[in-house]
Amino acid sequence: MAPQESDPSPNFLKSSEPTGKLRKEDDIDSSLNAWLEDLEKQNTSQQHPSKLADRSRIGGAIFGTIVIGVFGLKAPFVFTKSRLPYMATPGTKIRKALQHLCKEKKPGLFVDLGSGDGEAIYQAAKLGYNAVGIELNFTMWAMSSIRRRLFWSKEERSRSKLLWSDLFEYDLKDANAVMIFGVTPLMKPLSQKISSQCKSGTDILSYRFALPLAHDKKTQDLMKAAMVYDHEEMRIYRCK
Ligand SMILES: C[S@@+](CC[C@H](N)C(=O)[O-])C[C@H]1O[C@@H](n2cnc3c(N)ncnc32)[C@H](O)[C@@H]1O
């Protein structure tokens, strides 16, 4: 015998009571509720187990990606107590500052201390600099490296390098231009690093935060420099 198909319509619509007879609102309400409960039970039992497994796998993957992403962005700050989080300098401001320098000198070695998404390295390589980005945060370094590999021209790639490293370990002795978007507590140690490693004539681009300069005996370990550009929060200091 063929199985009988069940009629999914609510009971009150299948009522055997004569049409036209007015039924109490309560009856309709409770029949409707019972029908909705029935429907919900059917839906739950009809969910194919493999579909449920697929959904939980996708949910797990999304959750995992978020956890790894957040952990990846935070990890260097947790482990190294670096006080310099990722914030981007607009590419147009970097380009304008570098174009200003290119009017005066041929592009040489450009170093971005904390290269983030790699935008400064891209702008510098495009203008003819040999550009090196130093980035401690693995996620930022990986993202900028993928960006470089996929979207930069062969020439821009050949003139650029992105290193996964600590900026305080990179020697600036060969740099002609150094970029930094630091934060207040880091500006003094950065100024000391520049003072002890950079040759005279090196240009230091600093976005937003000013670098402290040497002006007396007490500050003689800081960089000796003159400001040669100050526009839209971008400063360029030339080392003496
Ligand atoms: C404010 S962002 C600047 C990014 C990029 N230079 C720009 O201007 O758009 C600072 C970057 O420095 C990185 N950073 C922080 N401490 C660092 C360290 N000790 N060595 C290398 N990179 C570091 C951060 O992960 C972040 O990507």
How would you sum up this structure, described in words?
By secondary structure, the protein is an alpha/beta fold. It has 2 domains: 21-81, no CATH class; 91-239, Rossmann fold, CATH 3.40.50. The chain has helices at 25-46, 49-80, 91-104, 119-126, 138-151, 154-158, 184-197, and strands spanning 109-113, 130-135, 160-164, 177-180, 203-207, 225-231, 234-239. The chain has a 7-stranded mixed sheet with strand order 3-2-1-4-5-7-6. The longest helix is centred in the N-terminal third of the chain and has 32 residues, at 49-80. It is elongated, with a radius of gyration of 32 Å. The termini are far apart. The structure holds S-adenosylmethionine (SAM). S-adenosylmethionine (SAM) binds next to helix 4 and strand 2.
